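Annual report, structural modelling task.

Input specification for the zinc ion complex:
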Amino acid sequence: MATAGVLTDRDRAVLESLPSDEYVRPMDVGGTDSSHHSATLQRLARFGLAEQKRHYRGVTGGHWRYRRSDMVQQALGFVRLLVSYGCAAEGEKMCGECGPCEAAAFLDKWGLR
Ligand SMILES: [Zn+2]
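The model returned the following structure:
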């Protein structure tokens, strides 16, 4: 598929390896080069595709941890329904307005499907 949205292949690869149920460090999602992973994760967070949380240790500041955002996770769940059962309103033909159809459009916009 052509590159939809503004995500690079690297952005998508990082997003795909990001868990949805726990916050992880940039180095946990495949980064030997943790600086570019941090930048990628911050981009994903800015787009609402990842959520970030400051993790503190001691008194020396802290660092960011990331997880896949609920929005992405819900969209992926909806699209699984779409694949299994079809669109909620139209069945095989997509109506473009029900939850699963909107989820599919959202993922398509970012090239995540
Ligand atoms: Zn629909």
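The CA atoms of residues 37 and 57 lie 21 Å apart.
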